[in-house]
Amino acid sequence: TVTDQSGEPLIGATVAVKSTNTGSVSDVNGRYSIPVAKEGAVLVFSYTGYATQEIPVGASNTVDVTLLENDNVMDEVVVVGYGSQIRSTLTGNIAKIDNENIKGMPVVSVEQAMQGQAAGVYVESVNGKVGAAARVRVRGVGSINAGTEPLFVVDGIPLSKDARNTFGAAMNPLADINFNDIESIEVLKDASAKAIYGSRGSNGVILITTKSGKSGKSQIELDLQYGVSQPTRKREFLNASEFIELFTEAANNSDDIEGVPYNDPSSWSTFVNNRFFRYSGRNDDWMQRIDKTNWQDEAFQDATMYNAILSFSGGSDKMRYYFSANRGLNEGILVANHLTKDGARLNLDFNATDKLKMGVNLAVSRTDTRTPSDDNAFSTPMQLVALAPITPKRDENGQLYDRPVTTYYNGLIDVEDATRKVLSNRTLINVFGDYSFTQHLALRVEGAANLYGVRDEARFGARTDVGNDSNGYGESVFAGATDYNTNAVLRWNRDYDVHSLGFDLGTEYFESTNNRTQVFGEQFPTDDLRTLASAAIITGGTSTEDKFSFLSYFGRARYNYDRKYLFNASLRTDGSSRFGANKRYAIFPAFSAGWVLSEEGFLDGNNTLSFLKARASWGQSGNADIGNFRALGLYSPGSYNGESNYIPQQIANPDLTWEKSTELNFGIDWGLFNNRISGEIDYYIKTTNDLLQQVPIPSTSGFSTQWRNIGELENRGWEFTVNSNNLVGDFKWTTSLNLALNKNRVVALADGQDIIDDGGTRYSNVVKVGEPIGVFYGAEYAGVDPANGDALWYTNATDGSDPRATTNDFSEANYTVLGSPLPDLIGGISNTFSWNNLSLDIRFQGQYGNEIQRSGDVFMSCNACWFDNQTRDQLDRWQNPGDITNVPEARLGYSNGDIGRSSRYISDGSFLRLRNLTLAYDIPTNKWMKGVRSLRVYATATNLLTFTRYEGWDPEVTADFLANNTTYGVDFYSAPQPKTIIGGIRIGF
Predict the structure, then answer these.
(1) Whole-model pTM?
(2) Which of 115, 123, 508, 777 has the most CB atoms less than 10 A away?
(3) pLDDT score of 370
């Protein structure tokens, strides 16, 4: 039998014969049976939360064991690519996030729950809209034009982000996963850990393992949550009196420049008074300076959310099952934004024979997202803040005011007269079989499918900005992705005295088909009819299909001597349809070694240092996320003289190949005081070569550019992790800390090029040799001339050889690097306190050293350059000679410092956020609660506090979804993150 310290049976404990593939689990009474070939074999007993024990088998047929509770992270089992290992024998760098660290968090998607929980894993929220995808980067940005996110693998199924919605944004596959179903998340970070995934591992690999059933009595768990959300922050704008005063002053200043009397019919002052009349609903009540509408409040709403999660698990010695169902509604903090998610999962495995184990993991989900316009559009609710506070929301007939009464388009018209509905359905299925030929040799075969479909319906009424010219406009998109993945892995493991050997040989095939159909229509008879079938004119449509595939072979070898000297090597060869005919295949090797110094005799008797391991790894991995047709010659349909034809669009490159990353990693794992305090320190250098770029070619070819592999990028950094059990006993206190420093640098570009700059103003990002990718590049703002209120710019560099010189002519300003959107330091710290049945978990997450470009402030913080309502910092503008301020003189219709490509609109984006706070109480069950196994009540708050110097709504922003690898860290009316407080109850039966 297998029991705990109190003698209670442990249900579902794992029992295995060491160095073989033979295993079993304990039943409801803690009993087990397992075939053992010979006397002297070693049984390994493990159970979550308990120390693993190894017991030699003697002459007796019965081995009883008592497992002790254990917080020793060195003994935990870690999932690696196509297998698992004990952490103490790892030679690579793998971060693990357990279910308890994410369970019950009131977020929509898995990656949001990962924020601040693993060193070197940077999770960026695009904005605060519910359902918006977050961007995940492991150890920095690894490419200029190819993908930069890690490969996500769920129960052996690789997930892609290829299906796209109406506006071309990649859908988020992780939003379809119920993260209460997740058992663990492993992040493969260094080359030795991720090279087994070859051409898809360059940006890291995140393995998500879902729960499985345990032998024993059936268990039922019901988790109910209800909560409310508000914006983490609102900005302060001018009231009616301040608005009128500022713009009157700005008009007078412009008249003074032009020498026009204020009362002249052609003056700016007359012009602005006419605007006040118009903005107030075409009357003179603006003179009373009454605030009629708080437009920022109109953009936001007090949101509610609920989640209900039900799960069943259990089984016998022969069969085990886990089933769950979930339903959730999350309203967004922006008006017209909410998400409903339904899902179910069945994980089933059974012993078909003594040698054959089979199983299936099946998950289905349906997500219904309603969303307003995107951040990049001027119709987003966030841009309501541009409207004047003297403008009423509705006219005397109850209709929303619009232009010409409003300053700009009233985005609330989209809320009332437009709909944007995205319905997505996903099915994930993985069927597997494990066959043990002998105690040492086993074969695992998997066949998986990821079936995804999304229907995106957008309908704009006749009053909306989009539908105004066409009496209503509609779009309908169906996008689908079908991924098939199959692999077979042969494993051999055996111990010879102090020698332990293991080999894996495998093959894998992956194929993805993506299709997209889009139809457009206009001229709707009434706004109440919202399907394209009601459109009088179908104006166009498109239909596309594309496919790509991978064929792979891989092997891995493991050896350790007496658990002191550890060696690991892997080799993978990948072939892909995405690359040129001459470069279809590539080889990705990796090597790693470890030395467990704490097992050496010279550390015997050390009562402080309980564990010490040094490790090193080298390897190569690739990036195949380049799109499907970059290597091919492309043609587009056209016509000439009434005849159809094809027009060349892209020149082929049969030598186009993988972006390849070479990574070197050195690490130390350590434990103190019987591993009561433990941690990791890692240093890495990752160099990415053969960057994918468009390179100019001779015009005689008929083309201007060609996709080629040229250029180099480097990431290097440090990672630190510390876990400690500070207090044990009735009152417990544990701490977990992770920090990561990463330095990104562009080493080389094509043909000796120094900078890639598209010259835009909304995004000031460039790619510059010697700098981090995507640095902000523009003029350095020098403040305000105290004599006349002019905005000033520096004309020379800051090398110190000459005094700084300034100008009020922006064209004479010196361009320089203004900052980087990439943080220098990211991290998180969590503390958990528990006393008897009461527990408190506090987790902070933050970043330091990055900058944000406030692109929206070019309009709303521009010292009244035009008629957008202004932020309150504009009250500090220059008004009289001798004023010392950073806000230039207000001049209506004139540019005076409102240049987006300058340091005036670059801000420190560092922040520290109270990411999660959970207070829980486990109510003792008694005989009056028959059938109740456990009962927990809890309250959780997310984003409760934020410490930052950022002036915008929220420092946690990257850019709208149209941004790419080099244009990010830009705040253009991006919605802030929600501050959410929920209450919940979890009942176990």
Answers:
(1) 0.89
(2) 115
(3) 86
